[in-house]
Amino acid sequence: MAHSSHDVIVVGGGVIGCAVARELATDHDILVVERGQIATEATALAAGEITMTPLYTDNPSIADYANEFFSKYDGTGQFEFTERPSLELVPPDRKYEARKRIERLAADSLTVSFLKPDVVEANYPRFNLEEFVGVIKYQDTGFVDPYTLAMTLKNDAESQGATILTDTTVTDIRIADEHVNGVNTSEGTFDAPHVVVATGWRTEQFLRDYAQLPIRPYRTQCIVLDPIKAVSNEFPMGWIPGEHVYFRPERTGSLLVGGWSFTEDNPDSASEKEDEVFRDHVANLVPGFLRGFERARFVNGWAGVDGATPDTRPIIDAPRDAPDGLVVAAGFHGRGVMTAPVAATVVRTLIAGEQCPFPRDPFVLSRLNHDRQTSSSTVSVLVIEFP
Ligand SMILES: Cc1cc2nc3c(=O)[nH]c(=O)nc-3n(C[C@H](O)[C@H](O)[C@H](O)COP(=O)(O)OP(=O)(O)OC[C@H]3O[C@@H](n4cnc5c(N)ncnc54)[C@H](O)[C@@H]3O)c2cc1C
Question: Which residues form a coiled coil (predicted)?
């Protein structure tokens, strides 16, 4: 059986585990332990949207931090970040609320604008906004290929000395005197004074003996549509509140449409195929606001499971009641790819005792004010909505 000692053990080799490993590997001896292969669970299924700006309007420094990372990381290995504005389509019943929101965001110096349908259609002729009063346009958004991002982060971590173990399941965390001192795995025992748990939707169950985490599995889905005439290079991203769907162009000229997220009681056996009813919904919805999609070809579809929290933000914390040395990075609620650089930095500051360049409060476990009885029921059936 294998045995070695490290500064930090990262459990889980999804995008979060890989980002954490890269961030710490510069000056720590890191071991990543992954039960399967790197980036093959939620990470591989993500749509790759980077929409931190509309999601963190209350904390723009967090969004700025992530956006800057993606811009700078663009071109590293195979990784590419495609910057693209996002349009929130505003139906008539949301007009007042949308205007108010824009005023508030503009007062906070965010680059947002309200565009009337004719202006949008002049800029983006594929749009047909008869049923909308306009759009809110957000700058500083874009998309990535999540698998390539995770593999590039992993390669970076390895080139800085991190060890990556795949096909190895962590069975439990070893604790002595209320301090972690390593993990037991299917392949042996490993020592470290810090263990970072980034096991995606499995985290609540995995850590149940050490911390109560209000993280629930939920299932969400995507389909790709091929219009007869490809969408252009300038085509924006966007979403429709109320319909619970978002969309973005693919580099091939197809359109990726995702959404419809619901808590999942049987995550291990949840269907990996998109629901027929979701496919029908999208097929009816898209031609209503995009020209040239009436006879779009269905290219691909899938569904995946991620971890949800009651306030939609992740838990990135060394929980007060947990053993010393234990750090959690989970509950990314459909946003783990875009939040990965933020998560990596929060974890680093927790382990190295460094100052965080942005507020950490949105990620602390205690904000959720939960207890053991309510921990899993506080996340009710949810619909994930932007922003
Ligand atoms: C359909 C879909 C669309 C999405 N779209 C977006 C998007 O557009 N933008 C965005 O930012 N996010 C999106 N997400 C969310 C994003 O995919 C997740 O938030 C993110 O991948 C979470 O990363 P992770 O590393 O925490 O989890 P995962 O990728 O699930 O990785 C966790 C890893 O831990 C491993 N593991 C678990 N238990 C153990 C154990 N005991 N021992 C060892 N290893 C273990 C697992 O094998 C897995 O590889 C989407 C998700 C889905 C499903």
Answer: none
